Structure formats: C-alpha cells, structure tokens
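Backbone-to-sequence.
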C-alpha cells in the first residue's frame, strides 16, 4: 500500500506557482492530490460500494486517509484580498471519500466547508450518517437550502446556510458571505423535509415507492409541467412531462395491479391527465368533463382491482374516473357549493371505497363510491366563531427607528392582529394590537412631528386603523370609506407638518387621509381599473407631495396630493399586475420610483419625465412581491416568488449583491439604516428574519 510521504513540494514548484495566477490551488493542494492518486487507484482496483462488491477493511482505511488529507484543504484560503476556494477535486469528491472511509464527521460536514461542496454528492453521502459525529442542525439546515446552491458563488451558499441555521435555533455567527443574520425564526424543524429543487412555484406533489423499492416524488408546477424526482438522490428522472396548457394544481400517484406506476394530474386547463412513470409518456387522451380548474386529485385501487381517480374542481363538483378506460364513472358528484380543494380516498375494512372532499363552502363530505356517489356531510366549521391563529403568517411589514434610536417593526398578519417587534432581537414588544376583523395585509409607520411613533394598517375588513405605538392603543375610530379590501398603505408628513396616509383598495380607488383629524382629504382618486395593490409617497424637491400607485391593471400612476389629480399619463410597460412600489429622491434631486410586478421584472421610473430609466431589471424567476428603498440610499431591495432577496443600484439598475436564497417566499420586506449598516427585515408565511448587509460601498 502506498503511504503519503511526509515531504513537501519542491521550492521550484512553489516558486513556479507563485509566479502564476493567484486563483490556482496552493502548492500543498497539488502535493496532496498527487500523492493520494495512487491510493485512489488502489481502491478502484479493489472494488467499491457503488458496484455492490464487498469493500475490504484495507480499502476503508485508505479512503479514510484520503478523506483526512483532503479535509485539510476543504476550508478556503486567503490570497491577499481574495478568498481562494478549495480545489475542484476536493469540492466534488471529499464527501465520497469520507463516506467510503466511514469518516463523515463534523470535520467535513460543517458550516465553513459545506458551502463549497457539491450538493449532488453530499446528499447520498449523508444517508445513514451517524448523528453522534455530525451536528443534526447543520445537516437539517443544509437540506433546507442546498437546492439553491451556486457552485460558482459559495459565499451566497454560506449566507443561505447561516440563515437556515439561525432560523432553526442556532446562535448567529459571522460568515464568509456578504450578509450577517441578526436573528431569524422559521416554521422549520426536524420534520421540515429535504428540499431538492426550486423553480416555478410548485402547486402540487405526490410520493410513491416503485415496485423496485425506489422512492420517488411527482411534482406539478405553475410552468405547466410535471416532474419526477428520485428521492434517494434528489435528482430529476427524465425530462419534464408536458401536455397541460396551464398550471398543474394537483397530483396523485398509484401502482397499478400489473405493477406499472402511474401519476394522475389535474390542471387549471380543466383537464386530468394520466402518465406512465416507466416511460414518461401520457396514457390516452386527457380526461375532460370538468368545466373549471381541477384543484384536487386522489387515486385508489378498488377491491375488484380496478384503478380509479377522484377529482375536485372549482366548478364545485367531484368526478370519479375509470383509469383502465379513461372514462367517467357515473355522473358528477354534486352537493358542494364552493370550490372543491381537497380530495382523499380510502377502502374501508368492510371493503367499501369512499372519497372524502373538502370545499371552500366550509364543509367536508364523505362519498360512498359503491352507491352512486351518495354523501354524508361533516359538520360545518364556522371560521368566524373560531378564528385561527396562524403563526408567522406575516402579510405586511414596516420598519421604523424610534426617536430614542431603537429600531422596531410593525407587522400585519392573517390572524387579524398587528404586532410590534424589537428589531435588535426579533422578539415581540407587548401584546398584539387587536381591532381588525380580517387579514391585515398593509402596514405603514411614521414618526409624527411631536415625536410620537404611529402605525397605519389596512385590512380585508375594508378599514384603515391608526395606532399609537407608545401605548399600543388605537387612535380614534377606524377610517372607513373603501368598499373593497385595503391592499396598500403609505404615510407621509407634508411640508406644513400635517401627517397623512394614502391607501389603495380592491375598489380600484386611492384615498388620502388626514391623520390629525381622522378624516378623508378630498374625493377618492380614480383612474385605475383594477385593485390598487401598491402605494408609495414622496415630497418632491420643489415641496410638492406626490403618491405613486401600482395596480392589477398593470399600470403605475403618479398623483399630485395637493390637487388630487394625476400627473401625466399612466406609466406603462409591465405586462402583469404591479405588486410593489417604492420611491426616492436621488442625490442629484431626481425623484424615481421602483416597481415590482408579476411579470417577474423590476422597473425604475424617472418621475420628472414619466419615463422608464433603462431596461427592466431581470433576474427574479417569479413574481416580484416586495420592493423597498432605504431612506436616502439609492438601493432597491426586492423579494420574489422565486424565494430570493435581491439588491439593485436604483440609479444604474446594476445588482449590488448576488441573490440571497431564503427559506420561504418573501412576501413582505422592510429596510432601515442602523449604525451605518443596511438592515433588511424579511417576512413571509413561515419566516421572520433580520439580515444585515455588509457587502461594500454600493449602498452607502
């Protein structure tokens, strides 16, 4: 057996390397790889675990020694101002040697090393790893974020891993990346699952164990495709299954009596499709009959060995299908008066097959599939009588630095409450503020001229409320007038020191409110033809106050708040609803707005000319749900349905930093400056986090 010599590389070799590129691996890397190559050849001649042959103790020992040698090279090294990643061989194959040598310890699986390693090789190497020698929280965090790993940018990987670690309960720790995690809480834990991909938003999933005992998952997506995944490796099997012409809302899977595995999918194109998972092809023609979107699917083999599918739809009906013939069984099952969103199926011990369906009409129905679809109705649950508490389902957030210098956030939630948070710790201050009777989905915050901090919130109950943040109590009565839910709120102190709020609503209007008197100013601003889903406000350099609004009619409008009239024509260019707006006066005194849309783009607008600045900012692969600007800094921070937070130079449109993958879709963002650092608050259904950007001068 070849031993690793204790000698060091020659002076000539090192001198040659020093004269070369600083991006080349250090001399010691070449020496270790050169001297471990004979050991690797020896292993290849003996046999490996992957081909099923026995592996001798000698081979295990050699693999362990190779892993030990490579581990010493797995941490990046500094070469002047540049961080040099580990050699490519180490990044790709360290875990394979460690797994083969029984050396999968925290020397390999740790937050400093993992961001550089190839996740496709790490995932199978973690199967069966001893939890006594590898930190379980590190493995869990890696599983939550490694699907978004960027081989060419391990610093971003380090940021994502650190966020997942802190969200899982670890103490914040400095990383080699561009962000620090001040605090984070997420609805994740030991059972949160192993994320193996992210692309277009997934709308459905099913799992199946194949006859050869391989576990697979089948997923449907808003990109109209179905994908099959090997759950042992986390990799796709074959090409996407195509044929649906709209979102795939529902997936079920089944092994037929002849042992063929199939998937059944329902789509917003109103059809059901059946797929042979052995060949990756469709079986027969689409199953048609539903007149609206298919929202739920279940599958079952009947006691007589006939396979069936049960589907629920937004046409309020349930249908049963014979999968042998591709035809409906009987008439549609009717009785629900709302969208059928959930379906399950079961064979009872007495061999009766049943289906259970849930609907937006508040009922659950049980159907006897042997008796023409008769149903019994489960009791209706009155949601108004038993309001749900949904932890961390934050729909809106605003940040504010109090007059005493403390940073706070105010959030609105689906449980109809408003909460105030200490942003140094990410913990709530006091009790929730109650009064709204439905989802609070819009929040703004302001320090009044008398130094009192207030919050303004809008709700699906069609009202606006104002809160004194010193006392945690409402100021005055709710502001009423909107006839649809309040979708957006902004606040501003006018040059005459009057505080106002501007609100946008599903009734397509914009309203302006005097916060001193609690009364509307003027008539509603009209012009939009869809929900006003985003509002920003600004005082121009000439002292005129304006509002900027975005709508589901795909346009952006600018309003003169002194006169209550539109300024110029609507700003057009977005091709889908505008979901977010922020505004800023640049150092050169140009007022700009930044908008995010469901067309996946961000646009920057010159508000003096009413024209776009440059081309749309692209990079998000899903709708852009949030846009914010720090006070006085021309940097836009955006959050999208693709699960990333991105930063842009608002003046040039250039990215300030690579996208940061987060653990959930960031539906609300807030930013503030504190101790000369840019802080970003990320909120969503399942994540509540405070991040500090420390990546350089681009935002200063």
């Amino acid at each position: 057996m070849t031993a690793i010599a204790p000698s060091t590389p020659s002076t000539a070799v090192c001198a040659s390397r020093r004269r070369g590129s600083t991006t080349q691996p250090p001399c010691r890397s070449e020496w270790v790889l050169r001297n471990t190559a004979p050991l690797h050849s020896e292993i290849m001649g003996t046999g490996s675990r992957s081909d099923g042959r026995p592996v001798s103790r000698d081979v295990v020992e050699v693999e362990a020694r190779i892993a030990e040698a490579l581990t010493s090279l797995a941490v990046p090294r500094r070469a002047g101002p540049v961080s040099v990643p580990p050699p490519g061989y180490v990044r790709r194959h360290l875990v394979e040697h460690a797994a083969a040598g029984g050396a999968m310890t925290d020397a390999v699986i740790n937050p400093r090393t993992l961001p550089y390693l190839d996740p496709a090789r790490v995932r199978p190497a973690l199967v069966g790893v001893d939890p006594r020698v590898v930190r379980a929280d590190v493995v869990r965090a890696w599983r939550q974020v490694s699907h978004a790993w960027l081989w060419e940018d391990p610093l971003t990987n380090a940021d994502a891993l650190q966020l997942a670690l802190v969200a899982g309960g670890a103490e914040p720790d400095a990383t080699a990346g561009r962000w620090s995690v001040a605090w984070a809480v997420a609805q994740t834990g030991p059972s949160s699952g192993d994320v193996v991909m992210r692309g277009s938003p997934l709308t459905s999933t099913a799992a199946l164990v194949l006859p050869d005992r391989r576990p697979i998952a089948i997923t449907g997506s808003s990109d109209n495709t179905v994908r099959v995944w090997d759950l042992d490796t986390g990799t796709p099997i074959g090409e996407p299954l195509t044929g649906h012409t709209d979102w795939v809302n529902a997936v079920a899977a089944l092994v037929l009596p002849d042992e063929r595995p199939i998937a059944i999918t329902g789509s917003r194109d109103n059809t059901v499709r059946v797929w042979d998972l052995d060949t990756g092809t469709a079986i027969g023609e689409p199953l048609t009959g539903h007149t609206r979107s298919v929202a739920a699917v279940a599958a079952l083999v009947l006691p007589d060995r006939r396979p069936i599918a049960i589907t629920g739809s937004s046409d309020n009906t349930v249908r049963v299908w014979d999968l042998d013939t591709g035809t409906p069984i009987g008439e549609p099952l009717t009785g629900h008066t709302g969208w059928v969103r959930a379906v399950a199926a079961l064979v009872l011990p007495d061999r009766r097959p049943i289906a259970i369906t849930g609907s937006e009409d508040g009922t659950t129905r049980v159907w006897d599939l042997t008796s023409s679809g008769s149903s019994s109705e489960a009791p209706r649950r009155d949601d108004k009588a038993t309001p749900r508490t949904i932890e961390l389902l934050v729909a809106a957030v605003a940040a504010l630095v109090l007059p005493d210098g403390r940073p706070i956030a105010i959030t609105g939630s689906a449980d109809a409450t408003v909460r105030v948070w200490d942003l140094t710790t990410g913990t709530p201050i006091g009790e929730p503020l109650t009064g709204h009777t439905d989802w609070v989905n819009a929040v703004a915050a302001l320090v009044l001229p008398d130094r009192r901090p207030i919050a303004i919130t809008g709700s699906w109950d069609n009202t606006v409320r104002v809160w004194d943040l010193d006392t945690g109590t409402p100021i005055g009565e709710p502001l009423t007038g909107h006839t649809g839910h309040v979708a957006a709120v902004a606040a501003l102190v006018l040059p005459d020191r009057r505080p106002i709020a501007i609100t946008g609503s599903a009734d397509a209007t914009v309203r302006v409110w005097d916060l001193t008197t609690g009364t509307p100013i003027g008539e509603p601003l009209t012009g939009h033809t869809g929900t006003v889903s985003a509002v920003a406000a600004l005082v121009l350099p000439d002292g005129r106050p304006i509002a900027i609004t975005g709508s589901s009619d795909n346009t952006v409008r600018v309003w003169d708040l002194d006169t209550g009239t539109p300024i110029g024509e609507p700003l057009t260019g977005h091709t889908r609803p505008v979901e977010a707006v922020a505004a800023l006066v640049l150092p050169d005194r140009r007022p700009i707005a930044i908008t995010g849309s469901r067309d996946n783009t961000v646009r920057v607008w010159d508000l003096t000319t009413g024209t776009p600045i440059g081309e749309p900012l692209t990079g998000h692969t899903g709708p852009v749900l949030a846009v914010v600007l720090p006070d006085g800094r021309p940097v836009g921070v955006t959050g999208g349905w693709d699960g990333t937070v991105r930063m842009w130079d608002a003046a040039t449109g250039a990215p300030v930093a690579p996208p940061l993958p987060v653990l959930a879709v960031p539906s609300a963002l807030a930013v503030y400056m504190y101790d000369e650092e840019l802080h970003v608050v990320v909120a969503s259904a399942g994540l509540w986090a405070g991040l500090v950007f420390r990546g350089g001068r681009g935002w200063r």
